[in-house]
Amino acid sequence: PIYLKWILKSLLKNKPKSLLDLLVRPESQARDEIGEIQSAVRQHLDKELIRLCNTLLVCSMPLTDRGSLELAGSFRTELALKLLQCLKLTDAPHFYGLPSLERTLRGMVHVTALPDWSTYSAAVEPVTLCKKYLTD
Asked: 20 to 30 Å CA-CA from 110: which of 66, 76, 117, 130?
């Protein structure tokens, strides 16, 4: 649990350039023509990043102390917000390949399946976040 807490703290405190920010490409980057090699590297990075996030979600489930629960909850909510933001870029070229869309949706399923996934955001009310997931 000590390493998990350290990883979660690192992911959440390194704002504005967090590892989670790699999930969401700026619109200019999404629209730009990129080479075949860059595209393959980006797809592999996306795949591994979603896999890491899903692993962290699973590993955070047995945490019981208050501090760890708060960290895990903040991670879930932040991940949910990033995945929703990523999904909103539906015209982005990276969604033309269905594996990218599938990974994003699978990540959304993993995060929303956990209890209290929407309750740890300082910026968005839980009900508002749930509504965004249902309507956007």
From this structure: 66
Q: Decide if 129 is inside a domain.
A: yes
* Phi, psi (deg, nearest 5) at residue 25: -85, 140
Does 48 reside within a domain? Answer: yes
- HSE (side-chain half, CA atoms, 13 Å) at 132: 18
Give which of 109, 124, 101, 128 is closest to 53, Cα–Cα: 109
Number of domains into which the chain is organized: 1
116 backbone φψ class: left, alpha, beta (φ>0; ψ -120 to 50)? left
Q: Which two tokens stand for residue 21?
A: 């920010």
- Closest CA relative to residue 92, chosen from 21, 35, 25, 37: 25
Where the chain has pLDDT below 50, the residues are 30-31
Query: How far is CA 127 from each of CA 25, 34, 93, 132, 136, rounded to the nearest angstrom?
Result: 26, 38, 31, 9, 14
pLDDT tens sequence across 32-51 = 556 778 878 888 888 899 99
What local confidence, expressed as pLDDT, does residue 31 receive?
46
